[in-house]
Design a protein that fits this description.
Elements lengths: L8 E4 L8 E2 L2 E2 L3 H17 L3 E5 L9 H21 L3 E2 L2 H5 L2 H9 L7 H13 L2 H6 L4
Parallel strand pairs: 1-4, 4-5
Antiparallel strand pairs: 2-3
Helix pairs in contact: 1-2, 4-5
Length: 139
């Protein structure tokens, strides 16, 4: 979507599924996730795409270890975004503590809530840097 002076926008969000443990190993190492995010942000900058990063939401039925790994990854993603002056929306802990998100996720597949949970996620995005990012991409 073109923004100010024709700048396109891009929203990036990943990491929850990467932090799932299978056969004693995390699917994607946190360092690789961070390298992937850095590559995405580098390419976005090269193409003059105003990026916004939405942190990984929790997978409610994946357990405390998964939540800890996801929260740690989210913190590292936030730090990377700060260093690169890219807006970041933290979601992991807020949604893990949100009864709508958790209740709806548990009523389904454990990861994806119903519309009320996604409204909670939307509220986090809108309360964060969204309006400034839309109004002034690339700042």
């Amino acid at each position: 979507m073109p923004g100010e002076q024709g700048h396109p926008y891009g929203v990036v969000s990943f990491g929850s599924n990467d932090m799932v443990e299978e056969d004693g190993t995390v699917r994607v190492a946190a360092a690789r996730c961070l390298d992937n995010l850095a590559s995405i942000l580098d390419e976005s900058k090269r193409r003059a795409i105003a990026a916004l990063v939405v942190g990984p939401p929790p997978v409610i039925d994946a357990g405390e270890d998964h939540l800890r790994r996801t929260a740690t990854l989210a913190d590292a993603m936030a730090a990377l975004c700060r260093r690169r002056h890219v807006p970041f929306v933290a979601t992991t802990q807020d949604l893990a503590n949100n009864p709508t998100w958790t209740g709806e996720a548990l009523a389904g597949d454990g990861a994806h809530p119903g519309s009320g949970g996604y409204q909670s996620l939307t509220a986090l995005v809108l309360a964060g840097p969204w309006h400034e990012w839309i109004a002034h991409p690339g700042r």
